């Protein structure tokens, strides 16, 4: 009888260990799934960063070009204003 009780206890312990092992297997699968999802997110973030860098490059190029054109126009306008003002100034100076 005593051995039967010990055997029953060992069986219950073995069942508990089996359930724990199943839980660990399930957790391991979930961790692997999270790793895969994290890798996917990292890839998406890298792609977004590249797109932002490309956009910044285009914006900088556009800004430099626009300011160059504005600078040339201002220089031309100032040249014309200078010529007109020079013609209107008395020659006594």
Q: What report would you give on this structure?
A:
It is rod-shaped and about 135 Å long. It has one domain. The protein contains 1 helix and no strands. The protein has 93 residues and is mostly helical.
Fraction of residues in helices? over 70%
Structural Rg: 40 Å
What kind of sheet is the major sheet? Answer: none
Helical stretch count? 1
Q: What string gives the helices and strands in order?
A: H
Topology, number of strands = 0
What's this entry about, in short?
This is DUF4164 domain-containing protein. With 93 residues, the protein is mainly α.
Question: Key features?
Answer:
single chain; 1 helix; 93 residues; mainly alpha; coiled coil
Write the layout of secondary structure elements.
Elements: H1 2-88
């Amino acid at each position: 009888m005593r051995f039967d009780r010990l055997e029953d206890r060992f069986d219950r312990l073995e069942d508990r260990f089996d359930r724990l092992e199943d839980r660990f297997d399930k957790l391991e699968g979930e961790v692997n799934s999270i790793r895969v999802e994290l890798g996917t997110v990292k890839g998406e973030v890298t792609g977004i960063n590249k797109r932002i860098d490309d956009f910044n490059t285009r914006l900088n190029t556009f800004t430099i070009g626009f300011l160059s054109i504005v600078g040339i126009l201002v220089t031309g306008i100032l040249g014309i204003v200078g010529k007109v003002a020079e013609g209107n100034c008395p020659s006594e100076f």
